[in-house]
Amino acid sequence: MGFRHVVLFKWKSDSTSEQRDAAIEALRQWGRDAEQYGALTFGTDAGLAEGNWDTAVVVDLPDRDAYLAYAADERHQKMIAEYIRPILAERAAVQHET
Amino acid sequence: MGFRHVVLFKWKSDSTSEQRDAAIEALRQWGRDAEQYGALTFGTDAGLAEGNWDTAVVVDLPDRDAYLAYAADERHQKMIAEYIRPILAERAAVQHET
């Protein structure tokens, strides 16, 4: 049994490619910082389907408590506030046991 | 390098628990049928965060072509038409290289 956090982002249509690139780079850095909690995988949509969102993040953690610690981490909150939220049009998330 | 398909569902607020359970069971069956393409993991939201969606599906495939075959599979299309679409309020998806 483990615990998985899945989140999808759709960026604002008026966000710049520099802002999007910076968000991806911030996610990359956060993935390294978050290794203490679990394994973070993310990626940018490959453009195969109409209506897709922009970016997916999947985090595999040992348990629910590790997720709560991951979510509350100050570096995580700072990354979201600085790089994600300013260009965020929509966010959808599910956390579930695996 | 591999390829990941991430999809989140939000069910209609007037869907019944029987319909939702049937959709989850259909996803479970489809996960077994889809083993020829890759590894499918899914789960129902644990209820830790306000505003979360209901169900997450993550499929890890060897490459983009395997995803296209997975997506087009007739059993997949039938499962979506019979169990997912009737109770679907919102869907968000991203496919990306890993």
TrEMBL record, chains A, B:
InterPro entries: Dabb, Dimeric_a/b-barrel. Residues 3-96 form the Stress-response A/B barrel domain. Pfam families: Dabb. SMART domains: Dabb. Coiled coil: none annotated. This is Stress responsive A/B Barrel Domain. It comes from Pseudonocardia thermophila. The lineage of its organism: Bacteria, Bacillati, Actinomycetota, Actinomycetes, Pseudonocardiales.
